[in-house]
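Dock pyridoxal-5'-phosphate; give full complex structure.
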Amino acid sequence: MMITPSARLLALPGYPLAELPSIKRRLLAAGKDIIDVAAGDNDTPPPQVAIDALKQAIDNPANSKYGFQQGHPEFRRAASDYVHRRFGKRFDPATEILPLIGSKEGLAHMPFAFLNVGDVAVMPEPGYQAYLGGTVLAGAEPYVVPLREEKGFLLDLDEVPVDVLKRTRLLFLNYPNNPTAAVATPEYLEHVVAICRQHQIVLAYDNAYCDIVFDGYRAPSIFEIRGAHEVAVEFFSLSKSFSMTGWRIGFAVGMSNLIGPLTTAKTYKDTGPFLAVQEAGAVVLDHAEELTAPICAEIGRRRDAAVPALRAAGFRVELPKAAMYLWVALPRGITSKAFARHALEVEGVMVLPGSAFGPAGEGFFRIALTVPPARLEEAVIRLTRALAGVQEDGGGQAA
Ligand SMILES: Cc1ncc(COP(=O)(O)O)c(C=O)c1O
């Protein structure tokens, strides 16, 4: 018997360092101390009000029924209120808000809602892999645009050839950005919205990190840009804002003619998030400002411990205004894969190599600010040794 996966599945790039978790398991089993700053999954607990609300919600048998796409009316109401409070824009809870099983799910379903075979989706590289996965699995064509340091890691649509732009129906954009931690200026967003309107491109604006901000920076909604509501769907996540990654809850916002197709695509694939989680999510969204403040303060302390330590050790890294990552440059001649493997195998620090986010991520590695300041300082000491070690080994260029 000859059973093969679909050509679309086979067309997906393999995760470049798929072996990292198994190396970590082996080292842990051998008793090695591992500092894992690879995944964007904070060590801080979820808010107590979320836990209490979930416990209560679970006692109500109605919450054990299918949520369907309509979901919990309270969650839609709370999501709409949150967007209104935060960004001054009002969206109808019934038709312009859509509960998601985490924002990744909604992002990955966007191509199924808006793309035909042969249509193009433009996306950043380095970038969140759900954009690529959703596009390829939907039979559409990804066009990746490198995020360049000299352009502030802002995706430059002028790099897309006009004939490609004409076939483009969907653009993925993510600021505050994972993995570069870059933020977008209003002028940049105005330019992007103008091009999307001109070419009738749906803009999937991934705002998963809008609540994780430092030093008074405020991450805008795409809907603050004039005309954006006609082309944009914005994605919000409760994962990072409230340390609730495993709860799988987020939501999409947009005009009903854009939310409608995404709802239909999802109807054939899932039956909505657990209603009890939606009920707890509503409580958290209603208290967003007070709940995110301590999380931002803690991630800020981590940033302020790690960045000076990295710089003192000779690494080049920006002080981020938002998100929970440090995007650290490697010296020329060192591949991020060789560095990440050496850092884990020899020094017990798990970082993500830039190449895990696509070839344009080469030359960098990502630290997630998911462990306390003292652990980050220890991580930097070990990463400094790892850099020296991998340089002695020849940098991995020939590997
Ligand atoms: C840029 C970006 N978007 C979306 C997500 C997905 O978050 P979730 O599916 O947990 O809401 C992540 C998670 O790491 C992310 O980094």
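Observed: The longest helix spans residues 288-312.
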